[in-house]
């Protein structure tokens, strides 16, 4: 029986060792903190230069922030190793490039934060060819390079993120947005464009965003919102929260439509605090308190079309004057002809007189004769 006991002990040790080796893929990386009960792994401020390859498969919330990753290559997250990962935070990692397929092996990914990275390259195929079920994307301060903005627009327009419900593009210094950037986001509910330098929304289409509930445009450089943009806002049935604070509103005739919309709309948060930034005489005046008498609208707002109308009218007047002049000439053609003949005869007599005096002055004999006769 002692031999049987030793055999049993050996089998038990073999099973325990086998279990230990099976648990190895779920072990915590050396520079990370793992909370298995919360399904969370944190690799924060560890100077990592690459994604740890030995992340536990149970992780649902992964924080890799404040490191020095520089680039996120294709296959940065091994296929089938993180089947339950839902929230991925990669903010503040000095990332400059996110390559095609870098996030393609994350089938459960719903939240992605790339904020605070100085991106210069963002592949439109970062989620692979089939797109992603991603619902929330944060790119605060990560779109300083214009080419990255264009790549993001191409990604969104391709339909790769049709399930996106929240998009954060704040703190990027954006002046203008690519046309049609948001047209393929039917599930979008929250759009944050605050703290940029947007000067207008003329080329921005909000059509198709039937689920949009919140639009933050505060702290930009908007001077006016045109009728086309206001009409789009009216046509979004779910839109209830629009932030327009801290913009440089120009209170001239062009702002009349915006003021009228503000007075009738309940979509704008804190609209009572919106004030004029220009001109100086309107500085600080509340937009809701502006009346037509406050604006100098002696000149029409649509100046190009007014100038075009003026040119047409001037052309008609000149043509009419020309026709009248020709008619007067025709009716007085005989008198004009006689007048022209008289002028011709007078000029001819005058020229003959000059010619006669020239001949006298040119002939010495006639000159002496003229002198003697004078004596």
TrEMBL record:
Residues 27-61 form the LRRNT domain. The keyword rRNA-binding does not apply. InterPro entries: Cys-rich_flank_reg_C, Leu-rich_rpt, Leu-rich_rpt_typical-subtyp, LRR_dom_sf, LRRNT, Wnt_signaling_inhibitor. The keyword Repeat applies. Residues 247-298 form the LRRCT domain. The chain crosses the membrane at residues 311-331. Residues 1-22 form the signal peptide. Keywords: Leucine-rich repeat, Membrane, Repeat, Signal, Transmembrane, Transmembrane helix. PANTHER family: LP06937P, TROPHOBLAST GLYCOPROTEIN. This is Trophoblast glycoprotein.
